[in-house]
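To: structure desk
From: M.T.
Subject: fold request, one chain
Message: Could you run this one when you get a chance? Sequence is below, nothing fancy, just the single chain.
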Amino acid sequence: PLTGYMSNLRIVKGQALYTANFATNVASSALTTTSQSANASNVSLLTLQTNIHYDNTKILDNSAQDFTVTRTSGTYPGSFSPSGNNKWGVWFSGSTTYIAPVANAVLAVGTGDFCIEGWVNFATSSGNQDMFACFGASGTGNGWTIYRNGTHIEVYSGAGGNGGFLTSTSSPAAGVWTHFAFVRSGSTLYL
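Reply: Done. Structure tokens follow.
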């Protein structure tokens, strides 16, 4: 499991927002339903952006879906973000910590274009660290998981148990906010 912060996790279906190398600006890093030319109606999930919630056992979804995102013990709304603009990240303590969006077909990326992106700040630069995953019905093998493989961010994407890996070209340092984006445009995958 992840030890560190994650912020501004967004799933956009129907649009491939990044299809080439790009530079990110940490100062303007807070994602919205329309930033990076996203169409608000394509945003399925926009979360890990605030430390204020009436319940403090849930994390807000700022998309139009307004899904319930449940946190486990050891996962806490924080006061730290890539932009420092009150859209704060969430701390993951590294034991059995994760967030769990409600199961809903609108979160499945399907076979069209998509973008799954966010910001991560690893507390340590070693070891495997799961960041976020979405899988289909039990036993189907459909879905994906984004994680740090010890040195690089990697995505495993499976379809019917026949999956593949996509590995980033850079190695994120500990204590530094790093933007990640897993994108499909047509039949091409990008990380």
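Reply (cont.): The radius of gyration is 15 Å. Let me know if you need anything else for the meeting.
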